[in-house]
Amino acid sequence: MVGNPTVAEPIFSHIYSNGLVLVAEPMPWLHSAAFTMLLPAGTAQEPASRGGLSTLTAEMAFRGAGPRNSRQFLQALEALGIEWTQSVGDAHSSYSVACQAEKLPEALELFADLVRRPHLPKEELEAARQTVLQEWRSLEDEPAQKVMVELRRRFYRMPWGRPHQGDREALQCIRHQEIVEFWEQFYRPDGCIIGVAGRVDWEKLVGWIGELFADWPAGAPGEPPQAINPPSVGHLPFDSQQTHLAVVYPTVPYQHEDYFRAWSAVHVLTGGASARLFTEIRERRGLCYAISASYHSLRDCAGVFCYAGTTAERAQQTLEVLLAELNRLSDGILPEELHRLRARVKAALVFQQESSTARSQALAADWYHLGRARTLEEVGRLIQSLSLEEINAYLARSGPKDFSLFTVGPQPLELPDGKPQPTMARVPPLGRGKTSGMADSRVSDQDIAESKPDRSEGD
Amino acid sequence: MEFLQTRLENGLEIIAECNPHAYGEAIGFFVRTGARDETEDLAGVSHFLEHMTFKGTLTRTADELNRAFDDIGAYCNAFTTEENTVYFAAMLPEYQDRTLELLADLVQPALRPEDFQTERLVILEEIRMYEDQPPFGADEKCRALFFGQHPLGRNILGTLESISGMTVEAMRQYWRKRYVPGNITLAAAGRVDFERLVASANRYCGHWEAGSTNRVLAPVHPQQQFQLLEKPSASQQYVIQLAAAPAAEDRRRYAAGLLATILGDDTGSRLFWALVDPGLAETATLTYSEYREIGLFATFLASTPELMPKNFQMLQDIYARAADREPIRSDELQLAKTKLCSHLVLSSERCQNRLFAIGAEWIQRRRYVSVQQEWETIQQVSLEEVQSVLVEFPLAQAATITIGPLNSWPLE
């Protein structure tokens, strides 16, 4: 079909009797299909002394399922040309999968085996444990990631905000039986959401998913209550070139009626080339290369997380400019900023129509937060209809405040009100040596071979 | 899907893959200039210049430029490689003309001295940022080790010294020499209106003074060396290894890409099953990249320091065995083809990805390859070709650097 971005595609949904939710958006102009499966098995469900249990369970689930052993399972995925990512977050363990549309039924079958019939082979526990421990160690080499992990941990009230990398001590002593029990408890259809987008036929899809999942017995416990902590400051001494600083302030969650007003303000801070943080901190003052802010929402609470990495001598100034910009938001945004936001959203929604993966993720996330999914057309309408007055009234009422700060680097920073930061003891790594810094542990073509993309940006 | 091309009178080439079914569009200037075109004292100038283009033109300030892109919702960015500097924007097709107007202005930067001083600070921060990320600059050091004095051995970002010492006048001269129409291709992909694109290009780029420039290609003499760099504060140990591979003009580049997938893809490869799946290493990958006259096989290993010497030995064994006792099997080749082809098809749904693909192909080899043609070329690679790459480009003849807490390395 000839593309017409204004034509809204319908969203279909179905709730099976065991509680499993299927939500789908056909995108017939694509050749691909994608699905995102959210399982109610996130880090918030781990016992306090078992940080990393959800990640270790997910790692074990990949080591053989249904009629296939570990190697056969991976080979089956790869033989279909499937691209997938696996991740563990606060609320969910999730899989995001893309393939050529005709391979979708087989891809779904494999992932049904993975979540319903994993072997969780005892003889592979040590290998899986080492794999997760290696990931834990790699975080110790990544100050830019480490600072966000530590800030998140302090911002949300336990058991929320825990890192998927887990805790070293816990990872070392998790027993096989605990993994089996975690899987039995949380790999369940009630609380599980499957979002599908791309070249799919809804009627067939409902049938396939029914065959694969309708007889999956329910029984997942609900989520623990969500809350945030009072503001805090902290510092982790680190042997690094830069000081990595992260600031968060509380905001309304995705389901809140003020969400798009709050989101607009974040967009003005960080979305687009003319965004305030980029302009004031990097363009005008040259204080850093990397600067960003992003919205992170649990179901009942949320925060806006800001990051900057800069040379130690200029970190204090960077922090002060960052806080000044956050405070300035309460004065409101300008008409031209709202105009640019609308233009960018209009384009961004069209670009989303090129990606079945992005849509499948959005559908599943929408359902988790709202109990329904929004069409792109609806999102567009909600944002285009925002008025400057309502955004600014919201900001005057609920602008950024109650900041929490965490820094990783050679020296702690001083808060503008003069209070020094408490310094946190360093966790010694496994084995010998001391801790230090890492992000994506892979050296990609980009790192070794070449390209350095150049403008960090939000969205 | 239709491929169209033309050339303006001043030498600027225009290519486009027009897809009437697309929703969006992407356009970009592909400038044939990068780190390999720099001299030692100008190391990093291509990348610094790319930053400077965003600081304003003769007619627009940086703020005006940034706002103008945001006003139409266009996403504009740029990147610099060893061989190319690419300026691109993704936008709604209705803004094709306006986006080209802005992008064409962007690549004619004002290069104001005060902006130069401010942006220098940003570049210095960028260099330090990479120093804080694994492998803590060892990747760049390994390039220098492998390429010796050859320009391909230099860091794209330059060094703290070269950037600190650079003058705006030297940058201006570099820009005048390299940013001539004969050295630039304007590419477009997605829902392109080609006729209007050419008319717009005439309007916004037609007055650029004609000119062309050469790339001086110096012969590469790859070095084989091993270096241990101690970084006591690191948690993990890292190994970077670089070996020669088929060049951009070598038809065996597809075989090389498949070989890297078979041996070192991040899942399902020989390195994965031997090192990552058992939990011995956090990462063990082999990637292939191509340049004029030489390609690179890059190995990356990350693991605990205790396990690294043994892991490295296993890696060497895997490479050695692949070349003789355990040659590549046809089922492995088929799986690798499926992976590459599937990735090709899935990624081509985004017009921005198609822009990069056709732009890179044109600037490197001056030809257009459709998704279908590329798919077929990959499918046609034979087992013999893959095996011959292993023999003619021995992975063992490499420059290697390890960095991390280890202060000694067991001799083999």
What does this 3D model show about the protein?
The complex is a heterodimer of chains A (459) and B (412). Chain A is of the alpha+beta class and 459 residues long. Chain A has two domains: 12-213, Metalloenzyme, LuxS/M16 peptidase-like (Cytochrome Bc1 Complex, Chain A, domain 1); 233-409, Metalloenzyme, LuxS/M16 peptidase-like (Cytochrome Bc1 Complex, Chain A, domain 1). In chain A, 40% of the residues lie in helices and 18% in strands. Chain A has 16 helices and 14 strands. Chain A has a six-stranded mixed sheet with strand order 1-2-8-3-7-6, sandwiched between helices. A five-stranded mixed sheet of chain A has the order 9-13-10-12-11, with helices on both faces. Mean pLDDT of chain A is 89; it is low at 1-7 and 426-453. Chain B has 412 residues and is of the alpha+beta class. Chain B has two domains: 2-205, Metalloenzyme, LuxS/M16 peptidase-like (Cytochrome Bc1 Complex, Chain A, domain 1, 2-Layer Sandwich), CATH 3.30.830.10; 226-404, Metalloenzyme, LuxS/M16 peptidase-like (Cytochrome Bc1 Complex, Chain A, domain 1). A six-stranded mixed sheet of chain B has the order 1-2-6-3-5-4, with helices on both faces. In chain B, a hairpin with a 2-residue loop joins strand 9 (283-291) and strand 10 (294-303). The longest helix of chain B is centred in the N-terminal third of the chain and has 19 residues, at 113-131. Chain B is globular. The model of chain B has no long low-confidence stretch (mean pLDDT 96). Classes of the chains: A alpha+beta (459), B alpha+beta (412). At the A-B interface, helix 2, strand 7, helix 4, helix 10 and strand 12 of A face helix 1, helix 2, strand 4, helix 4 and helix 5 of B.
